[in-house]
Design a protein that fits this description.
The complex is a heterodimer of chains A (89) and B (206). Chain A is an all-alpha fold and 89 residues long. Chain A has helices at residues 2-9, 11-55, 61-88; one strand at residues 56-57. Helices cover 91% and strands 2% of the residues of chain A. In chain A, helix 2 runs antiparallel to helix 3. Chain B has a five-stranded antiparallel sheet with strand order 1-3-4-5-6. A three-stranded antiparallel sheet of chain B has the order 7-8-9. The mean pLDDT of chain B is 87. Classes of the chains: A mainly alpha (89), B alpha+beta (206).
Amino acid sequence: MDETQYIFDNLNKTRQDNLSLNLSALLKLPIFVILFGNILYALILLLRVRILADTFESNAGGKIKILMYGYLTLIVVGSLISLLFIVLG
Amino acid sequence: MATKESLSQIPKKFKKTGKSFLPKLLASNNNSFSAFPKDMSFNGKEKDEEVVLIIRAHWIVYLPQVLGAILLMFIPFLVYFVLGDLFTNIMLFIGLLIATVLISISILVTTFMKWYYNVNIITDQKVLDLDFVNALSHNLAEAQLEKIEDVSHKTLGLVSSVFDIGTVYIQTAGAKAEIEFQNIPRPRDVQDIIYDLLELKQKGTI
């Protein structure tokens, strides 16, 4: 009888914990996919900009290339840090 | 108003023409509307070819994308407040925050590249339209000045009226699709400049 009462008392709590766990797990997978997609996109963008830099050359071309390499580095490093937090989370 | 310094930028062959487009070219030069730029080149540029004008789309066209990228950075906070009771894992929150910031940076960099490489070039021999469509494709259309049959422009909407932006259509001979300079500042001036260059070319002055 006491055991039944205990289950009824904690019924609401147990449900909330399960839901919280599921939501975290549900969020992780799409974020992994988005981060991987973002790295791939940054790579493709860099290649496109390299082609366009040959098509249209200006005195700012060097700065644009530096910006693109900096952007790619930031995306890769940032994605790894983000993945680390998500895995630990 | 053209200054003494800006007048010195004009190549000799244009100075003698006395055409009305010269003062228009030199008035309020900036990165979206740059007359006689130095140290620039493009694929297929001839040695004696002079770049008259470089035009990019007005910055206001890219404002929605910039605002969207900034708003995206606030999504983790929105998720945190909406699902506050369930979303208690701080590590996951930081991970999500970094991810959204990285995506926002990607949108901002793409927007900048679109602005920078969506470039329209007018030279004394031809017009070029370089379009950065997306990360996977770009278009480059060019037409010799002699082949141009008609130039028109269209401005539409409140934003176009406020910022004086519009699209210039350049119709060329043959079945080739027309060249479009989309959302550029001062479309009337650009139309006038192309017509004047066309006239000079027909006369053999340039």
